[in-house]
Specification:
Elements (H helix, E strand, L loop, with lengths): L1 H4 L4 H8 L8 H9 L6 E2 L5 E2 L2 H16 L4 H12 L27 H5 L8 H8 L3 H9 L13 H14 L9 H25 L9 H22 L1
Antiparallel strand pairs: 1-2
């Protein structure tokens, strides 16, 4: 009985769907289950237990049959696409599921923030305190060129971000020497982008209003890096 209370019985599902599909019957719901279009769980007593997602799925199936005249094979393919993350077509059209548009990755900074000038000028003591690190770690980071002062001896917001990340990683036993590949990769990435945008900048000849694409290209590089890391993590 507890399992039944956590879901919907076939009778309740029928009542939910009848207003939109007056000809629906319990035998039709059982037929759709037999065809593999919906798979309710079973209580120990054998009763079918439907979820809200099952009801939405049934509504999609019944709409596709009634309004779009889709055969079961087409509906099955559409459901498979939806199960794989595709976006279902509109209720009032014959559009089939489509690949969803990719939202902006919140972990990738915008081109504007990449191109923004430094917003901070911190002393060594201010940087160390704000990053929550000790002087020894700071000196090691400087030694490996991971944080570098400007000509006036101050550190900007990018240096603070590096220092904070390094301090957080140090709590997991990651030493500054382990971070050198990140600096090398960043230098190579920026170098590659400069090679890419160089011809465009040269062609503009410094014309007024000509847009510098460097930040936009760098953003795509960062998006690529984040996507590759995500893919590798899932593969592992």
């Amino acid at each position: 009985m507890a399992a039944r209370r956590r879901g919907l019985s076939i009778g309740v599902v029928l009542e939910r769907l009848l207003p939109d599909f007056p000809d629906l019957s319990i035998s039709k719901l059982r037929f759709l289950e037999a065809e593999g279009l919906v798979t309710p769980t079973r209580a120990p007593s054998g009763y079918r237990i439907y979820t809200e997602a099952d009801v939405q799925r049934l509504h999609y199936v019944l709409t596709a049959q009634r309004d779009r005249f889709w055969p079961l094979k087409v509906i099955r393919d559409a459901l498979d696409a939806m199960d794989r993350g595709l976006t279902p077509g509109g209720e009032d059209s014959t559009q089939r599921p489509t690949v969803p548009s990719a939202p902006a990755d919140p972990d990738v900074p915008s081109a504007a923030s990449i191109a923004a000038p430094a917003s901070l000028r911190l002393t060594e003591a201010e940087l160390v305190g704000a990053a929550g690190m000790d002087a020894a770690l700071f000196q090691t980071l400087c030694g490996f060129g991971l944080v570098r002062p400007d000509e006036s001896g101050h550190f900007d917001d990018a240096a603070l971000a590096v220092a904070r990340a390094a301090a957080a990683l140090a709590a997991y036993g990651v030493e500054a020497r382990h971070l050198r590949p990140f600096r090398t990769a960043a230098e190579r990435e920026v170098g590659l982008v400069q090679q890419i945008v160089g011809p465009a900048l040269a062609a503009s000849g410094g014309r007024s209003g000509a847009e510098d694409p460097t930040a936009h290209v760098l953003r795509q590089c960062l998006a690529l890096h984040a996507a590759l890391v995500r893919a590798e993590l899932r593969r592992g």
